[in-house]
Amino acid sequence: MANGAVFTACRYEHANNITGPGHATLLTGCYPARTGIVGNDFCDLASGKCGYCAQDSAGVFGARNMLVPTLGDVLRKISPRSKVVGVGLKDRAAILMAGPSATTCVWYDANARRWTSSAAYPQPSWLSSINATVNVDRYIGAVWSPLPLPSGLPVVPMDSVAEEGAFPGGNSAFPHRILDPSHPKFMASVLISPFSMEMLFDVVTEVVDRENLGRDKSPDVLCVGVSTTDYIGHVFGPDSWEVLDVYARADREIKDLLEHLNRRVGKNNYVLVVTSDHGVAPIPEVIRRQAEQQRTTIDAGRIREVEIQVRIDSALSTMLGPLAPNSSYVREIYEPSIYLNWNAIGKADRARVIETTTRAVASHPGIGIALSSDDVTQKRRPAAIDTATWNYIARSTFAGRTGEVVMYPKPYWIIGGNVATHGTPYDYDRWVPMMWYGAGIAPLTSDIKCAPVDIAPTLARLLGVRLGDADGRPLPLNTTTRR
Ligand SMILES: [Zn+2]
Q1: 465 C-alpha vs ligand 1 centroid, how far in Å?
Q2: CATH number of the domain bearing residue 403
Q3: 174 alpha carbon to ligand 1 midpoint, in Å?
Q4: Residues 279-288: b if buried by 16+ CB within 10 A, e if exposed
């Protein structure tokens, strides 16, 4: 932060602020309406097939679903000797940043408890040797105690907050103990701790060396998806001591990585960008209590997907007739999309079915926005939705992949079973860090309005590469001329 360019007002300009759409945006410079990655999972309305954003129809992990090239894809075309490498704790983070033509893409398979890749990418020769050294066994019996708090913190974090979640096999208070490896939640206890981040950065350091990144005249791209911060945030909430501690530790990991790059690649031979795939909302019960303590109230709460499904089934049963046992008029709910089950609905009037569904969704007290995706793609904005929010939603919508109906909670309401989460069009969910450091980048702190779609066009300009028709624009970095 001291020696780089820090953009303090960086916000996503799309509404579906979750992992898949966020990572797909980061190095394409395009909104989900262009990348086609509208959710972590989505359905194809024409074929009726549903699946995971980073898997093809045969189940192979890869970036086939992404409809625009990443910076790495563009670079590889004009500079075939360039390496494009993705490393992530989550497969979709590594895959959607690196793109389909990545030369190496590895991620952590939590079920197999090992680093892995897929048939979509060349198999790295070093994978088994990395698995031999960077594996979860070294955390058996480990304990997560917080680092000492620095002095002068504006707010001292509380450790045990009633509304927080519990560490796997434990509670909400430090220290957190990694479970026995035979425990079904052993892997979760490692992932929801800084140990998973340490493992990730150890792999990143190894990959820099083994792939000889940044060592010749052809520029390389290394994409790193951390995700430990996301796992911990979901359990303890954004204002927890656990989140504070993991960011303090992330700072140290980045310091070690920069020192490694300085030694190996050279201080003036790389550029680092730090950002996030989405923001996060506070725990609803925490802000409700905080409001009560200030003798006011705040409308915040939780929506379970099943509550939405029950409302839709009830409304459509009235319109279409009773459902067969164990069936539903809803095919899938993949936030923010609702996909209808046309096999059960039959030949009923499509527009009327969608209108009835939209009304049923909107009747939930926590739902702020329920829309037909046809209305979004055909630009029929209801007066109740402001233009900015409407644009965020439109940029998240891809005709044929977004569900027939989309829903977003009211501010401070969340959908799903996590203690804290993200996925809405509101300020707190769109706000992310953006920091630049390295070759030719002068120190700068800027509060100009900017967005993660600007990252790929900016990197393209630094590399002297034409990215094509991206949604973002190059940032006004104070670069010094070099080379
Ligand atoms: Zn998350």
Answers
A1: 32
A2: 3.30.1360.150
A3: 22
A4: bbbbbbbbbb
pLDDT of residue 482: 45
Q: How far apart are CA 70 and CA 25, in angstroms?
A: 9
pLDDT tens track for 291-330 = 999 999 999 999 999 999 999 999 999 999 999 999 999 9
Write down the mean pLDDT value for the chain. Answer: 96
Distance in angstroms (rounded) separating the CA atoms of residues 313 and 150: 53
354/401 same-domain check: yes
Q: Are 119 and 60 in contact (CB under 8 A)?
A: yes
What CATH number is attached to the domain comprising 96?
Answer: 3.40.720.10
Compute, in angstroms, the gap from residue 283 CA to the centroid of ligand 1: 13
> Max alpha carbon distance in the chain (Å)?
71
Shared domain for 239 and 327, answered yes or no, is no
Residues 279 and 313 in one domain: no
Residues comprising the chain, all counted = 483
Calculate how far, in angstroms, residue 430's C-alpha sits from the geometric centre of ligand 1: 13
Q: Are residues 307 and 344 in the same domain?
A: yes
Ligand 1 mean position to 248 CA, how many Å? 19
Q: Find the 285 Cα to ligand 1 centroid distance in Å.
A: 18
29: left (phi over 0), alpha (psi -120 to 50) or beta: left
Measure 19 CA to ligand 1 centroid, in angstroms. Answer: 6
Q: How many angstroms separate the CA atoms of 7 and 5, rounded?
A: 7
Residue 241 in tokens: 């001591």
CA of 125 to the centre of ligand 1 (A): 32
CA of 235 to the centre of ligand 1 (A): 10
Q: Does 437 share its domain with 383?
A: no
CA 172 / ligand 1 centre spacing (Å): 19
Residue-number span of the structural domain to which 117 is assigned: 60-283+431-463
Rounded to the nearest whole angstrom, what is the distance from the C-alpha of residue 343 to the centroid of ligand 1? 32
For residues 315 and 267, membership in a common domain is answered with: no
